Amino acid sequence: MPRDAREYGRNHADRIAEIERKFGPDKVEQVLAQLSRISHPTEQLLGAIVFLARPGHVGDIASSVSLANQDASAVLNAATVKDERG
């Protein structure tokens, strides 16, 4: 079954929708605050971080942000692997 394109969080509106789906509307501001800590954000990187997070595990965002600040390509590669594995 193909993924809903919103899952990839390629733009701000899709990221908000995916954050709400995974964590609930009350966590949107908290997750956006964590995402704002990325030193060199791109749409692709922000989307990958949200895509990788497990539903209900807001801590995944902080871990991915930390990794993205060290090695953004590792986060992008992890998102690619998750997408390929379904």
What does this structure look like?
The protein has 86 residues and is mostly helical. Helix 3 packs across helix 4 and helix 3 crosses helix 5. 65% of the residues lie in helices and 0% in strands. It starts with 11 loop residues before the first helix and ends with a helix. The chain has 5 helices and no strands. The model has no long low-confidence stretch (mean pLDDT 94). The protein is globular, with a radius of gyration of 12 Å.
End-to-end gap: 9 Å
- Computed over alpha carbons, the radius of gyration is 12 Å
Helix content class: 55-70%
| Proportion of residues in β-strands | under 5%
Point out poorly predicted stretches: none
- Mean pLDDT, to the nearest integer, reads 94
Number of helices: 5
Assembly of the depicted chains: single chain
The helix/strand series, from N terminus to C terminus, equals HHHHH
Number of strands: 0
Shape: globular
Query: Helix/strand-derived class?
Result: mainly alpha
**Largest sheet properties:** none
Summarize the structure.
By secondary structure, the chain is mainly α. It has 5 helices and no strands.
Give the helix/strand layout.
Blueprint: H1 12-23, H2 28-35, H3 43-52, H4 59-70, H5 72-85
Helix pairs in contact: 1-3, 3-4, 3-5, 4-5
